[in-house]
Amino acid sequence: MRFVITKNVFENVVAHMQPFLEKKDASSITSHIYLETSNDVLTLKATDYEIGLESKIDSITDCTDGKATVNGSNLLGIIKRLKNEEISIETSSNNLIIKQKKSTFKLPMYDANEYPNVSKTTNLKDLSISTLNFITSIRRITPAIDNNNPKFELNGALLDIKSSKINFVATDTRRLAISQLQNISNEESQFIIPKKAIIEIQKLFLDDAKISYDDTNLVISNENTIFFTKLINGKFPDYERIIPNTLKHNFELPKNILIESIKLVTSLFSNIKITFTPNNIIFESLDEDTESKTQVDINLNIEEEFYLAVNAKYILDFLSMTDNDKIAVGFNESNLPFYLQDEKFRTIVMPIVLEK
């Protein structure tokens, strides 16, 4: 195998491969990137068996067909140090040789024929949804996906395809985030996408792509890239029973005032109490050692005083994903879950229970 390629083009693709490599065992073939040249096209693959990426580059020259594997981390380390000029890459015995002018680097290879082929592209159902809507929806709920929860289904996001709508759902047991789209033609289904996959999808795809799935896999592809992930095999909690059927209070608030006031009182401690009165909102820190408090005068058209005690991060995460200048706040009683909404995106937050 041999090819010549511009350094920055090659570096960009190799860098995108890094999250898909086996990190714990450098001796594993899945710590390697697979390279193959055929018909003047370079194909690169990386996988840790759970998640994978395949990219094609057609801007190569002086190409001889062949295939190789090389440790992905070591390869990127070398490429980063080179100048932004053409580099040549070729195989010799059991080594990959990287050259740029008078500089030469040699990396050991494994048998490319033993590289796993775990991507699935046949017998998949297409998900009829625009890539932009898909990315926007998963981006909104990403902060609410849990990390390393023993209930492994919570370490991912649910795609709940119903007859008339598609719900993107995530929860870390302290909050529930839901982003909703209209379903035009997809058949009803449910599957859970791992958090790692959701983070990488947002980096890789911006424009039109094909989204496909079956019971165990999700595949997203465009002209030069194929991304795949295994789905989480588990049953997501019955999230709809957590959503309040009725709300005693529901009003809109300016987003910028909420952000400014919350940040003002959370510089030292993240837990806050927000008190709503007929004519103002009081924000105060729950830190026992210091006092942080601010007040915003606003007519809420309510008759009695209520409060919400909460980790401010949950509110700020929600506000950072909203598009409009005003958001809706809904609640029934103090110390009960409350509701934040921006059109088709909403978050239900579990409060910090305070003694009345």
Automatic annotation (TrEMBL):
Example of a GO MF term: DNA binding
InterPro entries named among the record's database cross-references: DNA_clamp_sf, DNA_polIII_beta, DNA_polIII_beta_C, DNA_polIII_beta_cen, DNA_polIII_beta_N
Keywords tagged on the record: Cytoplasm, DNA replication, DNA-binding, DNA-directed DNA polymerase, Nucleotidyltransferase, Transferase
Listed SUPFAM superfamilies: DNA clamp (SSF55979)
GO biological processes: DNA strand elongation involved in DNA replication
Cellular localization per UniProt: Cytoplasm
GO CC, alphabetical: cytoplasm; DNA polymerase III complex
Pfam families linked: DNA_pol3_beta, DNA_pol3_beta_2, DNA_pol3_beta_3
CDD domains: beta_clamp (cd00140)
The UniProt record lists the keyword Nucleotidyltransferase: yes
UniProt KW Cell cycle keyword: no
Quaternary structure note: Forms a ring-shaped head-to-tail homodimer around DNA.
Described purpose of this protein according to its UniProt entry: Confers DNA tethering and processivity to DNA polymerases and other proteins. Acts as a clamp, forming a ring around DNA (a reaction catalyzed by the clamp-loading complex) which diffuses in an ATP-independent manner freely and bidirectionally along dsDNA. Initially characterized for its ability to contact the catalytic subunit of DNA polymerase III (Pol III), a complex, multichain enzyme responsible for most of the replicative synthesis in bacteria; Pol III exhibits 3'-5' exonuclease proofreading activity.
Family: Belongs to the beta sliding clamp family.
Protein name: Beta sliding clamp
Phylogenetic classification of the source organism: Bacteria, Pseudomonadati, Campylobacterota, Epsilonproteobacteria, Campylobacterales
Gene: dnaN
